[in-house]
Automatic annotation (TrEMBL):
Domain of life: Eukaryota
Gene Ontology annotations of biological process type: cell surface receptor signaling pathway
Name of the featured protein: (rape) hypothetical protein
Pfam families: Pkinase
UniProt keyword terms in alphabetical order: ATP-binding, Nucleotide-binding
Organism encoding this protein: Brassica napus
Domain called Protein kinase: residue spans: 1-233
UniProt cross-references to InterPro entries, sorted A to Z: Kinase-like_dom_sf, Prot_kinase_dom, Ser/Thr_kinase_AS, WAK-like
Gene3D superfamilies according to UniProt: Transferase(Phosphotransferase) domain 1 (1.10.510.10)
Length: 233
């Protein structure tokens, strides 16, 4: 039943994507009066020449750990060019793809979230849990950072109304809940055993359930990830 529902949701999302993309392209072409292709592609040589080999003098004021903006002129038109800082995410040595290490990192992050949910008289919600807010030291030990969006729930309450910040759940526009800490992470599953893959997938799907009461609390998520970690040893 769950597999059928997931396939149905995928088909619906694919249909919406195609419809919205076609509408967007039609509007772009209309704005250009059909004279030019609104979506252009340029060669690396053209981009390199436009930025004078990515000369710092062509860079724009922007603070980021992942990319730099450059200004340049190609074929008589001004463009802003985004260059990712080496190593590009995904191109560095994938030492972290080891399943045991990945499970340990996930466990440490979820343990930190569980601590926020249970260690104080009032529950603390981080509200912006994503890969860029998790720091790894030289030993790949994870630390959860950036509590600028965190809120505390009133004592005795398991949810409050709030505005959308950080990573959003389906029902996040309505309220903030103890079970509703959204987590945004990617992962490399190529080294997983089938059993471990199924365990991770089952846990992830339960965390994405639409109804709040169907999603597990973080303390249970932490316990399950610990079991997955032990299964990888």
């Amino acid at each position: 039943m769950k597999c059928w529902r997931r396939e149905k949701d995928k088909d619906k999302a694919r249909k919406c994507f195609l419809e919205n993309r076609s509408m967007f392209l039609e509007q772009l072409i209309a704005d250009c009066n059909g004279i030019s292709n609104p979506i252009r592609m340029f060669s690396s040589d053209q981009i390199s020449e436009a930025t004078n080999q990515f000369d710092p003098m062509c860079s724009l004021q922007h603070i980021s750990s992942y990319f730099t903006w450059y200004k340049g002129i190609i074929e008589g038109r001004s463009y802003v060019i985004k260059r990712f800082i080496d190593p590009v995410v995904g191109e560095e040595e994938r030492a972290y793809s080891d399943i045991a290490l990945s499970a340990r990192i996930a466990k440490e992050v979820v343990t930190a979230i569980t601590y926020l949910h249970t260690a104080f008289s009032r529950i603390i919600l981080h509200r912006d849990i994503k890969a860029t807010n998790v720091f790894l030291d030289k030993n790949w030990k994870a630390s959860l950072t950036d509590f600028s969006s965190a809120v505390t729930l009133p004592e005795g309450k398991s949810w409050i109304q709030g505005i959308v910040l950080g990573t959003m759940l389906l029902d996040y526009v309505k309220d903030l809940r103890e079970r509703g800490e959204p987590v945004e992470f990617g992962g490399d599953s190529k080294d997983m055993r089938p059993g471990q893959m199924n365990m991770f997938l089952d846990l992830a799907l339960r965390c994405c359930e639409v109804r709040n009461e169907d999603r597990p609390k973080m303390i249970l998520v932490a316990k399950e990830i610990k079991l997955i970690e032990q299964a990888s040893l």
